[in-house]
TrEMBL record:
<feature type="transmembrane region" description="Helical">
    <location>
        <begin position="192"/>
        <end position="209"/>
    </location>
</feature>
<feature type="transmembrane region" description="Helical">
    <location>
        <begin position="50"/>
        <end position="67"/>
    </location>
</feature>
<dbReference type="GO" id="GO:0046872">
    <property type="term" value="F:metal ion binding"/>
</dbReference>
<protein>
    <submittedName>
        <fullName>Peptidase M48</fullName>
    </submittedName>
</protein>
<keyword id="KW-1003">Cell membrane</keyword>
<feature type="domain" description="Peptidase M48">
    <location>
        <begin position="92"/>
        <end position="279"/>
    </location>
</feature>
<feature type="transmembrane region" description="Helical">
    <location>
        <begin position="21"/>
        <end position="44"/>
    </location>
</feature>
<dbReference type="GO" id="GO:0005886">
    <property type="term" value="C:plasma membrane"/>
</dbReference>
<keyword id="KW-0482">Metalloprotease</keyword>
<keyword id="KW-0472">Membrane</keyword>
<dbReference type="InterPro" id="IPR050083">
    <property type="entry name" value="HtpX_protease"/>
</dbReference>
<keyword id="KW-0378">Hydrolase</keyword>
<feature type="transmembrane region" description="Helical">
    <location>
        <begin position="168"/>
        <end position="186"/>
    </location>
</feature>
<keyword id="KW-0645">Protease</keyword>
<dbReference type="GO" id="GO:0004222">
    <property type="term" value="F:metalloendopeptidase activity"/>
</dbReference>
<keyword id="KW-0479">Metal-binding</keyword>
<keyword id="KW-1133">Transmembrane helix</keyword>
Length: 298
């Protein structure tokens, strides 16, 4: 059973990327996250604290990309995908990367574990795509190509950098809110009750906004995959087949026991993603990438 949508107005469901809206809300969502952080810092220490928080976030964003994707691959126990054993996968990735106008080929890794899964990490020339064994052996060539198109769309959109920024904003907000609560509880300052409630709920608000950004980027990557594949049919077929494999391999049981509510999930439900793909207007495929190719590419 799919995630049930919360009883929210349609425009809010679309803004929070619970339902497809046809428009990306990443920028306003991230602006809301930055606003929550700035408000939290200002309430705790005024303008000077807000400026300090901004400097800390800038430093974290500068340092974080220095961490190599290879480190994450080791943590996930992933290994490089053997090009001799899977030449077709490399050919698909090269074709899709060229079609997206990328000037590099993402490194491909093999993920251990059950279920169909794929992740993209790194930035620019250091981009790495990891694909699970069940994806390699359980999907047809067209379905595998759709999965790769989705991940390469993430790389083209710069989603790893976007998600890094949201993670830093969330962690900074959580840290300041926790520090504020400690000051309120153990310090000599006697704040009003409403301020304690605000500092207690602000991290949750930031967390929900971060989840919304992730879901928004999933919608965008699905649309990008449709652009690359000249239509959404292969992506829809892949999503349906992946859902079937994962329910069987992971032994998923009904929603209320296993799946988080839509507001907390990192991915829109399969039903909603297919709804969004079917809502793409015919004739608009490839336009996203054709209008965003770097100068000099063909």
């Amino acid at each position: 059973m799919e995630n049930e949508k919360p009883n929210l107005p349609v425009f809010l469901q679309q803004f929070l990327a619970i339902s497809p809206g046809g428009v990306s809300h990443t920028v306003p969502l991230m602006a809301c996250m930055a606003g929550v952080l700035a408000t939290c810092a200002w309430m705790l220490g005024g303008v000077s604290m807000a400026i300090s928080a901004a400097i800390a976030v800038a430093l974290m964003l500068a340092v974080a990309p220095m961490i190599s994707p290879d480190v994450l691959m080791k943590l996930l126990r992933a290994r490089p995908l053997d090009i001799a054993a899977y030449p077709a996968i490399y050919e698909m990735a090269a074709m899709l990367a060229h079609r997206a106008g990328l000037d590099y080929l993402p490194k491909l890794f093999l993920l251990p574990g059950k279920g169909v899964n794929a992740i993209t990490t790194g930035t620019a020339g250091d981009t790495t795509i990891a694909i699970s064994s069940d994806a390699l052996h359980g999907l047809s060539p067209r379905q595998m190509r759709a999965v790769l198109a989705h991940e390469i769309a993430h790389a083209w959109h710069g989603d790893t950098r976007i998600l890094l920024m949201t993670d830093v904003l969330y962690r900074a907000t959580w840290t300041i809110a926790l520090f504020g609560l400690m000051v309120f509880i153990f310090g000599s300052f006697n704040p009003p009750a409403w301020m304690i409630i605000v500092f207690g709920t602000i991290p949750t608000i930031s967390f929900l906004l971060q989840r919304a950004v992730i879901r928004d980027r999933e919608f965008a990557a699905d649309h990008g995959a449709s652009d690359l594949l000249n239509g959404p049919e292969d992506m829809i077929d892949a999503l349906l087949h992946i859902d079937k494999i994962n329910r069987k391999r992971l032994g998923l049981i009904p929603y209320r026991s296993t799946q988080p509510p839509s507001l907390l999930d990192t991915h829109p439900s399969v039903k909603v993603r297919i709804e969004a793909l079917r809502g793409i207007n015919p004739g608009t495929w490839q336009k996203f990438f054709e209008t965003r190719r770097p100068p000099g590419t063909t």
